[in-house]
Amino acid sequence: MISMNEDKDKLNYFIVDSTAIIHQFMLENELKDNDLLLVPELLEDELKSSESKSVLTVLEAEDKIIKTAPSSESIEKISKIAMETGDISALSKIDLHVLALSLDFPDSVVYSDDNAVQNVCKKLNVKFQSFQFKIKHQREYFWKCTVCRSKFTYKLDSCPDCGSSTKRYFKKK
Q1: Which of 22, 60, 61, 122 could join 138 in a cystine, given CB atoms 3.0 to 4.6 angstroms apart?
Q2: In sequence order, what are the beta bridge partners of 12?
Q3: How many other CB atoms are found less than 10 A from the CB of residue 61?
Q4: Model-level pTM?
Q5: For the chain, which domains are there?
Q6: How many CB atoms neighbour CB 57 within 10 A?
């Protein structure tokens, strides 16, 4: 557990997904003394390039990274919310962990370019920052058969009614 010095400012937690590391965003922005990056333990599995691995190494050397796992309760809650928004099929296991950490660490900020991560953040009123891609409005997705027009709340490769393909849509507000 992290201990706080009474003299120090409140710690700021930034929950980082792989896009923050891959785009080297965390190196380009200067971190303050009281800023800490929370990284899902699984993140290293998603980093493939030597550049992204070296960014992670540099941040670890600066003692700015805390590798942690979210609570199982938070993962379960995030999975349910992602089902409601229709984002569950677009979220990786690491994305789910990033979002679950935002529940375990209230008042944190999620760094992600992933539209599905941002969409769930909007649904939860969790602060997020992006680097290149930022959604403007929260959306709820559904799938519809391209032939018989049956609607589904989750992704299906083919319609159980007629066997045709399905397509993803979002509810217009």
Answers
A1: 122
A2: 35
A3: 9
A4: 0.75
A5: 12-129 (3.40.50.1010), 141-170 (2.20.28)
A6: 11
